[in-house]
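Fig. S4 source data, part A: sequence.
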Amino acid sequence: MDITDDIPPPPPLSPPPVESTLSVTSSSEQQAPPPPPPPPSSSNNGEDYDEEGEKNASSSSQQQGSTASLATYIQHGHTIVPLRKRPIFLRLDVFPFAILYCMYVYCDWNGEYYEYTNILFPITLLIHLSVFLTQCWKVSVRSKVGYRKASRSKKKIGNWTHVLVTPPNNCGMSDIVPLQKRKFASSKDGEPSSVSEFMFQDVIFRKGSYFPDLWDGLSSNKNNGEDQESSNKKASCDFKRLHFPTDWPLSSYISKWKGHTTNTSLQASFQTYGRNLCQISIPSLWVLLGEQLVAPFFLFQVFCVALWSLDEYWYYAIFTLFTLFLFEMTAALNRRRSLKRLRETTRPSYPVLCYRFQQWDWIRSDELVAGDILSLKSTHNISEASSEQQNQLPCDVLLLTGSAVLNEAMLTGESVPQLKEAVESTISGGGIQPSSAAAKEQDKDSSSSSDKKSSKQYDAGSTILDMDDMLHKKSILFGGTTVLDAHPPSSDSSTSTSSSCVPSPPDGGCTGFVLRTGFETQQGHLLRTMIHSSRHAKDGVNTKDTFIFILLLLCCALFSATYVLLDGWFNETRNRFRLILHVIIILTSVVPPELPMELSLAVTSSLQDLMMSQIFCTEPFRIPLGGKVDTCAFDKTGTLTSDEMRVKGLRLPPPLPKTTIGIILTREQREIRCLDGETKHGSNADLVVPSEVPRDTLRVMVGCQALARDRNNNVNNNSSLIGDPLEKAVLKACEWTVQPNNATVVPAPHNSSKYATASPITILHRFAFESRLKRMTTLVQERNQKNLLVLTKGAPEVIKPMLTAASTPPNYDIVYRHHMSMGQRVLCLAYKDLGSNPPSVQSLRSRGRRYVESNLIFCGFLVLDCPLKPDSSRIMNELKASGHSCVMITGDAALTACEVARQVGIIDTAPGDTYDLREMTRVHYTDKGKGKEQVMEVDQSFAFVPIDKASGQYKPEECIAFVPGNIKVLMNMMKQNELSLCVTGEALTKVAVSAVRRQYFLTMQERYSKKKNIPPPPPIDPKTVLLDPAAQAVLKMLVPCVSVFARHAPRQKEAVIAAFNAAGRYTLMCGDGTNDVGALKQAHVGISIISMPEIEAKHRSAKEAIKSAKKEQKSNKKSSRKSSNKSIEQSLQELAEAQEQLHEVALGDASVASPFTSRTMSIACCKDIIRQGRCTLVIMLTIYKILGVNCLVNALILSELHMHGVKQGDRQLTAVGIIVAGLFFFVTKGKPLKSLSSHRPPSSVLCKQAFASIGSQFLIHMIAILCVTNMALAFLDPDDPSAHVDGPFHPNPLNTCCFLMTVLATINTFAVNYRGKPFMQSFKSNKMLLRSVQVCVGALFLCALEFFEPLNQLLQLAPLPSTHTIGVLNLNDGKLGGQKMNPILSIFVNTLGFKITLLMIMSLDSYASIKTERAIIRYYEKR
């Protein structure tokens, strides 16, 4: 069965933001996508295309047909439209209207056409105002009104004054920016060179060949040739971002560049790149307020206020205008305050040691330019400014010599410091990845291709620097990170400075090359993302549901307005102006002025509640989305488990004899020992402590690491080590430590093992750990020994092909898979002795990792585990009990991830019922013609296989094919806990590649009649294939069935979340560090938590001490009680210290870029955000329902009842406005419940439950109001002037009764629609709201009973009919000069009296509304 059968076409996906491509297009061409960018190898950040390239691309795309669909996610860049500013008198909003105004003045002066000018002048004025406001709302309109489209010819660029820039999706809004023309002196002949440039979102784009010889002979020849060719051949205009020196051959950085040696070169760099500043401009308060005041919604509100003023409601209009202005002022102040906080995070300028003019000199950090060489050193010797500020790198730097330890938490969120090494030391020999056994089994094609890709030799003379390559990043120090320590190269080190042409700095620091400065750095990119991307985010008001809801209410208002207009238009006694004004008021009453304020207030209150829980949100509009979440995804290490690693022990191979010549070992003698003697995998009882391991194994444990010592910490123990927590735990367990040179490991002073006097081990070279390679290797040598040793550790499945056959135990796979299935982390340890006369280290580095990492000897499995965080299981169970689907997305092995998922409760099945997706090969034979032999063909397919069985151990009937027909079956089995599914990142990529290839061939079959004529598919980029529409169509079927996603890289995590979103899920992603940032941004709710292993360990030990002390308190001994009390006090003090340290942790820029950031160390923040999200969502739905009911009631008052003369006084409307504002405020103060309910709140106001609730409430209120109106009309004289429709307001019984009833209906909407449990505190628990409603209802009853006359006079209420009047009514058959009363109402009025009957109707209205709403809620909860 074809895997693509019955798959609906996926929705188009928006491409990721790319800011390096800029095109010049006309306004009619903006909707067309630009051609695909050139391959990454051609250029780095200088990509461009023009009109000629666009035509070529379109023609090639027509030839290739659907081949472009396999180009895997074409990235769109910026587009620009050249403009020329119009003179002020030729602007379209000046010249035509000036002529019209002059004509009107002339006609008015001469007294001609007076009747026409009175009509045309206000229409013209309205059109003029509309044109002005539309320019504020639409940039495209502003570009046509105030500018002309200029020619795109290169010769006409001098006529350009501005450009209209359209950024990629989700990268801010379009804008018109001025084009600047500058002339620079060339660095060779001194002749001025013209350069055109503009700045958009703090990034400079330039056009023109300026300083072509600035990096002459240093950058790639290929790129230089392309640049020259483009500058000579292109006839149209192209703009590029500033091209920084980030694509040179490595030899240019190391041995050719000597810094800026001349003043001409330095000035050219200054003119090209500017100062090294990240200046965040903060607009003035009045500028921000002006932007708020011209918003469409605010202007509509002001228009409503003007209408109320024309209807002589002055107090109400002034009160509404004041509240609107106060709200907009608050929003502008918050925006300005946020920009100020963001500017405070930028680094200040401080002195740095820079190599210029062939000498070292001190300069300010803001004077650095690309190409400078500076000294990197821990700045505790510099007294100026604070050490924290000075330790932050001012720019992106390539480390040329030495090594440095960096804390990248401020940039990536990772709490573990990273060791950076010189580029020559890192690159040499790196990047060679032999195919593993697993790779051979699952993907022979991809493994061979990856071998070709990864087996390239990194030669410093030919290798181009790649800022995105993980290996190159080992030598790149990004701006904003903190230098904890820096070590210059030693004279005898393999990474000496002999190849460098720059002398060592006088302060003994490391040397680095400045790559990027200002906003072009990594930190600058994050700052720009936070400034521009979130500025125009949805605010909860301008949403699709809101507009549809208002449109439905507008239909009701339109019906009422039409009824009033038709009734009054043909009545000659009516004032036409008053009639039209009243009709407009009916239409505008649909959108209440307080709508944006109340919705914003609900989100703001939730934002404050989250901050009280140490949860910070940068995108408040995502808070209501937390109430819609149905899928929760979690990272494992640092999120569900602690980053703290604990060494459980080692599984050792049997000791081999000194010589194996003539000795044949049996299978049992070669197996890893198992004490039970029954199984092949053994148990934890077979683990050996580090102090008892053989010397060869100990060497690998202590010598294969990349730890560094913090020289600012004078304590000589492992607490001062910086690096991977795993390596720190191993070194601590072995009781060894690192010396200050970071290259020698020695036994610790307190070492009590048999290796306390062992010789120190010196690390001569490191082949750094890479997540792609899953291993690390070092070249070491013991003191006073000539033998050179190769020490390797890594994933067992990766190391196995590198081992010698003699040292590989037969139960190798069984043992490590067993420990992984227990949730433990397993590393394979191996070594090789190169003898006493080995090749030089430089020779081994040049030969590469493949040569070094071969024929290794297996020396054991290192078994570690990460303790679960205390509340991970509890929170997970609560989330699952509340109906949330929980999954794990991690980079750990599948077996380990599944066991941890089982421990925390993500999966509830036994290990035998957990299945893993693997690639299968289907072999079949076909005949190729008559008499020809059968030819074997292999088809690619995928199936779920029991995860605890390796290749060859499972039977075909145990596999479940991954085909569309099995998806529903798998989902049902998962719901019944019959099985759990796991998918690795490698399998996910293969599924995506297979789907894209299938889509390609299916499309090509429509064009070619014969399969043999179909051209082969173009190469597929594995980095972007997961986001291809064809791949997402398959992945959105797969991911909802999977519980554990193992061995996933950051891009794969992002693709999984995107697939969940495409499947219609609302996703929450919780993780820590830079590996999860992409997934956090992709999810509807992304939460970044702090991971601090030291604080977590301190917190956990303190809690354990408190538990043990409480157990001792249960004993009757007084002495034990006293000691336990002391231990409890000490533990509580430690807890307080840990919490204080946690609050002092600075949130990184990448963490702040995440929608939510929590200072807590557990996933309890996920529950808090979901609780708060549900509370906010319910409050917003409550606001919609309240406003909907009130709008319908107002439409009834303004239409049907207004025709009977019902009006409201100015003071009445003002009092109602104050009451409604206060009640809305108290509604938004509702707090969420501590527990999560299994019921979900309605996700939108456009649902049956909301419509049923609004309709039933309006029906009840309408009946009550009409009954009261019918009662009051019987006592109203038709000739009373106060009953005239167009007359002024005068209190009468009809106005009074309707006012009391409508105010009660308004108050009832708050009491009835306040949802309360099970999502937020009940109505009775919200004391402020309860007391306010009680006071308001009590005041209404007092007014109805006329107990307090001053209150009635304040509210402009007339006296209600008395007992004497009711007697007269009885004599006149229910009529007293007015409309006849309903017989049933007449009976109640005559029996109980008018006031009591009025109170009875008010009470019945409240009771019926409450009971009906509760019945609707119960009905829809049962469904």
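Fig. S4 source data, part B ends here. Residues 70 and 1394 are 79 Å apart (CA to CA).
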